Every structure is written in C-alpha cells, then in structure tokens.
Amino acid sequence: MAKAKVAVWLGTRKGAYGLTSDARRRTWSVRGPFHAGTDVFHVTADARDPRYVYALANSGWFGPRVFRSKDGGRKWAEVAPPMMALAKDREHDEMGGTKPGPIVNLWHLTMGPENEPSTLFLGVDPASLYRSDDRGESWTPMNGLNQHRTRPKWNPGAGGMCLHSIVLDPTRPKRMYAGISAAGVFRSDDGGEHWTPKNTGVVVSFQPEKRPEVGQCVHKIALDPANPSVVYRQDHDGIHVSRDSADSWTRVGKVLDTDFGFVVTAPKSMPGEAFFAPVEGMSRLAPGGQLQVYRWSERTRKFSPTVKGRPFPGDLGTHRDGMDSDWLDPAGIYVGTTTGQLLISPNGAKSWNEVPYRFPSIHSVSVAPAGPAA
Amino acid sequence: MVSVRLDAMLKEFVPRRTVTTSATTVRAMIEELETNYPRIRWRLRDETGALRRYVKVFVNGDELDHQSGLSTRLAADDTVDILHSIQGG
Fold first, then answer.
1. Which of A14, A117, A341, B43 makes an SS bond possible with A337, Cβ 3.0 to 4.6 Å?
2. B89 lies in a domain?
C-alpha cells in the first residue's frame, strides 16, 4: 500500500498547487504555483487517467479560462472556454428576466463515468452546467437544467449564482446531481436531459416562503460511497441527510453549536460516515478560534468532533470546495482553509496534521492518484 | 494605417507589441485582431461582445466609453492603445 502515490490539487486565490505523497501521507512535496497570480477556483486530476489535470482559472483581466495538462501538471495549455448561450438561443431568459450576461466564473469540474473516459461536466456562474465529450476541447450547455422552468426563481448567493456541485451516482450511470447557490439541489435520472428539484425538507430561512420548491442555498453535497441513496448536504440552512436519493431531507445538524458551513466529504473507505467543518453563519469563521471537523455516523446518527485540543488555533474558514477525501483505507481527509493552511488526516480523522507550507487562500482541494509528473 | 499598441499583458496572446490595421471602427479592429491572433479571442471581449471589465481602450489618448466605445470610428494615422487596469490584491 505504501507504494500508492496520492496527489492533492489545490485551487487558490493566486494559482494552483500540486502536492504528492505516498500512502502514509505524512510528508508532502509541493509543486506550484501554476497559473500564478490567477484565481483558480478548482483544479482536479482525472482519476480515470491522472495524466490529465484541469484548472478553472478566473481572471479579471482575461475572463474565465480552462487549462489542461496532459502530463500530470508539468505543462499546461488552454482549452476551449464554455460560452453562455446568447439570448436568441434560449427557450427561456436564463437570467430570470434580467439582462443576459456572460459567464462570470468557472466553478467546478467533475469527471464523467468510467465508461466515458473523455467526458467532463463543468459548473459555472451564472448557474449553468456544461458537458464536454472531448476532454475540454468543446462544451455543450445542458439546457435541461440551464433552461429549467424554475430558473426565474433562482437567485445569487454571496458568491454569485454558481453551480458548484456535480455528483454522479456510481451505481446508476444515468443519475446525477447538481447543486446551485441559491437554487438548491437538482437530480437527473436520464443522464442530464431532464432535472427535478430535490429540496423537500430543507427550510429557507432567508426568504418569506420557507419551504419553496427551489431557492435553497445548498453549499455542497456528497453521496455515501457504500449506499449512494444516502446523500449528505451542507446547506446555508444547516447539515442535512437524505436516505432516499434526495427525495426528502432531514436536518441533523441542529445539535451542533452551529451547523452552517460550506464543506462535506464522504470517504470511500468509511461507509455511512461523512465529515463537516462548520463555521459561524455571520463571520464564516470557525467557532471559538479553532476549526473543528465533525464526523457524522449514519449508524449512531450522531456527530463526534475529530480535532482534539487546539492544534490549529486561529480564525479559520473554508470555501465550499475546500474539503476532500481519498480512496485509501484508512481514509485521508483534507481540509484547505481560507487562510492558506492545508490540514490532513491520514487515518480517517483520528489525528490531524498541517502541511508545513502556507498557501494563498485555498478555494478547492481535490484528491486523485498521482500522475506521471509526481 | 491605424497603429494599435498592445500592453505587455497581451504578450501571451499576440507576439507583437504594435500592429497596424485598416479597420474603420474599434470593433472591426478588435475583430481583425481576433482573426489574426485567435488566442486573443474571448480575452478582450466576452461572449456577448462587450469589452471585459478591466480592458481599457484609448484612441489618440482618449479613453473610450466601455459600453459605446466599440463603435468609435478610426481614421488613418490614429493610434489605439489597449491597456489593462491594475487589479488590487
């Protein structure tokens, strides 16, 4: 097992970084910054073929850009950017009656299923989903979601109206989920042709109608690796679990001091468990000057804190792609903070270490097998 | 001919600092740039055709309006500067 190489890709306020380690995950080598000076919202390797790494860069000067590496991050080249459908091509005004605008930011990239090795899914602001079947050479808007009948009721959160979560069900090839802030969770059971809002049970605290069909501010979702009908949801309005593939949700986080937050991950080797790192709702900082990562157990239906004592004192926060976990047993769990720390547990959250390198503000953390450049 | 001076930020997309054009509007000048140097496409303008927020275009030293400036007519011997605002942070 020690021969397995793990790569952690970070998207930060000032570029992308790649870290590698062996299966012990105790010491790390750091490469980067790639695309230095640019806001990289998400950088992720293709676990199906880790030679391919993608970076979503958002530049105030040059606009959104997709970069791709074919050699594990040594060399990068720009591939095609997605294009917002112009008004003449829309069935509905995608902006809910406001003036149509261009793509503002690229948010999140998810790889397609194993049997479609060139397929990628990309989420952007204004909330839209794109599909590429040629590893990013071209993009097709997925208008079943982008022109959804509920779109006029979607609203931007503080981070813009972003499509930030794209999750595929590994046991049902045609089933996928999308999370939009602030529109909520949508599910497709036909490969992305048609989409249904899936927000029943999630109360919206910030608008007059408390139980709308859409308008929830989901921050991140994750499927349970052993039972993908169990879906974990970190929402603006708390931590929720669904046990029926998002048909209904139960808020489980009220027992915590705060269950506001942005991140969730469910490690492959820990069925029935998910990890959350709540922050205060107003400040977006960890309560009490100490980031805490809670483990949720579906078996006991309880949370337990995993950070013992105060090993990382400070006013830390996380962005919504700031936590990920690997495929190893014991699981590696990775938390990147808005102040540039990368915290790693190599043992299923029994203990936590900090990588001794201070990064720019971390937007995203993504784990994959290391490619050839590592 | 109109002389178009490009700031160093655009070196990634256009290998020359100055190009010349016979285009008669700023929009046509940018379209010609995009044709001759395809990598600059989408970098000066977004997919709606509007100039990106931090792109500034000057004709003979006068800054163009971000909305209407693309229609500005160009005459022989005009000098166009394409610059980028300094971004903070």
1. A341
2. no
